Structure to design on (225 residues):
């Protein structure tokens, strides 16, 4: 089987609009890692998963990317056992690359920018404000691509189904549990985590509608979707 045939089988396996969805997934993963590097450096807060993992990685003496990958592997095993259909190409890309992309760019900023740049005003506030929206947008793009949930996002879906509780309520409990673990590990809760929690849902809805209208428009007309 040649390379072209493998590619065709791969994208056929991924499903409808596979190439566009795969591109969106990669764009979302890269964007999350890239903009997360700014959010971490400013110290104003991040998503709940990162908030939990940053102090834990420090306590275990590992880089953020390595600790996040290790924890994701453990959570992935649980997802595989309980509900493997939630896993996709995006699951692997999310758990493997986001942390390391963030680590890489944090290293780049340390080489290029003056020491303490991200902690001095007004640079700190400006960088945080400029990075927050595209970070949320990157998460939305990743989710709209629908190529598998990250293990951190898949577990509350599974637990809510098994416990018979509404996902919206269960997800809040899950996120606050992650925040509690992060604080117990030495993390300091800041405004960014709250802004992400409040802004992600509406942003995903807006991005979902726009992408389905414009990005998938041509294929939808051709396939009659």
């Amino acid at each position: 089987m040649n390379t072209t045939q493998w590619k065709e089988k791969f994208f056929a396996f991924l499903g409808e609009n596979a190439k566009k969805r795969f591109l969106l997934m990669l764009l979302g993963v890269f964007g999350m890692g890239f903009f997360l590097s700014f959010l971490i450096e400013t110290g104003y807060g991040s998503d709940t998963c990162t908030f939990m993992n940053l102090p834990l990685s420090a306590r275990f003496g590992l880089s953020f990317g390595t600790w996040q990958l290790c924890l994701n592997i453990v959570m992935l095993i649980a997802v595989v056992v309980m509900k493997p259909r939630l896993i996709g190409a995006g699951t692997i890309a999310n758990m493997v690359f986001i942390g390391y992309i963030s680590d890489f760019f944090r290293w780049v900023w340390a080489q290029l920018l003056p020491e303490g740049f991200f902690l001095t005003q007004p640079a700190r506030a400006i960088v945080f404000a400029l990075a927050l929206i595209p970070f949320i947008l990157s998460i939305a793009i990743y989710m709209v691509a629908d190529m598998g949930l990250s293990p951190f996002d898949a577990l509350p879906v599974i637990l809510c189904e098994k416990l018979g509780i509404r996902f919206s309520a269960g997800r809040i409990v899950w996120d606050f549990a992650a925040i509690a673990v992060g604080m117990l590990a030495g993390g300091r809760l800041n405004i960014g985590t709250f802004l992400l929690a409040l802004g992600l849902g509406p942003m995903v809805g807006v991005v979902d509608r726009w992408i389905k209208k414009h990005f998938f428009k041509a294929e939808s007309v051709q396939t009659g979707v």
